[in-house]
What does this fold into?
Amino acid sequence: MRQLILFVLFAVAAIAAVEAGAVVLSTGAINNYGGSANLFHDIAEANDFRGWYLLAGNTVFTAWTDGNVWGSDFRDQGSPNDMDPSGGSDRAQVYYYTGHGICPSSQTTTSQVDFLVTHGNFGLPDVDHIVTDSVWGNNGGRLQFMLIDASCPTEVPEITQLFPIFGGLHMVTGNSGDSKHDTLDSEDRGNEFGIQTAGFPPLSFFFPQLPVGDAWMNTGLIDVQNQVCAIAAAAGDTRDDAINRRDNERVTSGWGNPSNNWMAWKWVCND
Amino acid sequence: MTSSYQRLAVLWGAAVLGAGGYSAVSAVDAPNGAPAALQDRAIDIATRELATKTLGLKLPADVSAGHRMNFAGLQAGPITVTHRLDSRTFLVYDQRFSDTKQTGINKESDAQLMRRNRGLLEQLHIPANEIASAKVTQEKTQIGERDQSSGKMQLEPVRLGKKWVRTTRAIDGLAVFSSRATIGWMPGGAIGFLEVHWPEIPAKVLEEGRRYRELVSSGKWHAPELKGARVESVTAGILHSPAAATAMDIEPVIRVIYAPLDEKMGKKPVAYLDAEGKEVRMPRVFLERPRESLKTERLAPTR
It folds into this structure.
């Protein structure tokens, strides 16, 4: 009995010892598109992003690459879906995706925008129309921060179309452009974004943790062509709540899930 | 670079010992006490001088400073200042920069900001002739409310937000792809965010970079084919480890940007190659990566 009590006390202490505000992270990184404009640096980029999060005391849920990243990982409906226990995006608190998206021919298009493109072994189709396919933070989903490095997944002119994805989700980040003004395949962008959002507690005052929105405003224009914008959007219960989250929320803030009554966003462009 | 910085810090520190007013937190282990302690203090003093004299920051009284691995830094209230001991790399963040509701935004003209930017880079000994381009970028912000019954959006006007000056680097016209200066400015010209990553490039690497440039311009070098994409541009330059890194590798490269043949595909593949057209070993981020046990096989979904 005494041993059982000691075990319980030890377990509780061990749980409490996990750094306050530590998050669970997943990454999905795709280089191999089966010979259709394969990318070079996305897996390394996700490795770097994850590396800083691990050093900051966070844990990793999944870190799938290439064919193990499925289109269904980002879809709310269907089977499997974003709650799939082997790697759905809604299982972690932070999800960093790096791979292809689909760019419109111009930024004044009237055609559909905001896509992710995978090259999965399962979970077809590979193409996700975020606006209609994705809802995060709902139905038991944990995702709070969907961080997308895919070019054109969050087009500025149509940003309000993203309202429905906020099922409990706090923030989304991405880029806006078109087929002639695009983001480049870059390891550096994800590395910098990783350390600025994770911070680095072992050298606690050397690498401060920035709010997600500002970290993306600083880093989202690394290795992008002219006229590409970096955009960060947050949902909120009220106007002030949405603004506060957009400007001040960190991945470890521990704030409750917002409703999607209000949305506040900001963007900066490489003009 | 590490030994140069430390020698400089020790000499400087020896001259101004006693410039206290802060508590030093040093995490460096030393085999014997006195010389290491002197060096630690000198580095901490150099960091404080960087913050107050070079960067012109107004620090509150309580300052914590220290150094570890290849970084040295201090924290004072909302301000963090970091520099690398192995590279000309500086990082500053003032938390008030993010809280524009309290702090406001910089309203100086772009020309004024560019002047400030040039002056600050000069203070950091960034050679003016290595500045390839500099531009002001300004954030825009907007808010919307969704009518839950109709689903219609009501949008407020777009407002202007924070300003940054973003600077790129070239040495004698040779692009240094990984170097940059990104400085975000608060009202009154105070630094809100600063990342200046401008390591010295060894002469041998520059020489090889120039050779790559001649090879590219001669027309004799051809980018390898990438299936499903066409070559959009070919540029010789220099690649190095990023600011946030425990390594500092520097490589001459030929950068090839490809454009997907399917114009709708987003993200342009980028290859960094050598004179033979082979992929270079990318500059490292970590000297020692955090350990992970990564799964490589994801089982098919069960129905």
In short: Residues 28 and 97 of chain A are 5 Å apart (CA to CA). The helical segments of chain A are 2-17, 42-55, 130-133, 187-198, 212-219, 239-248.
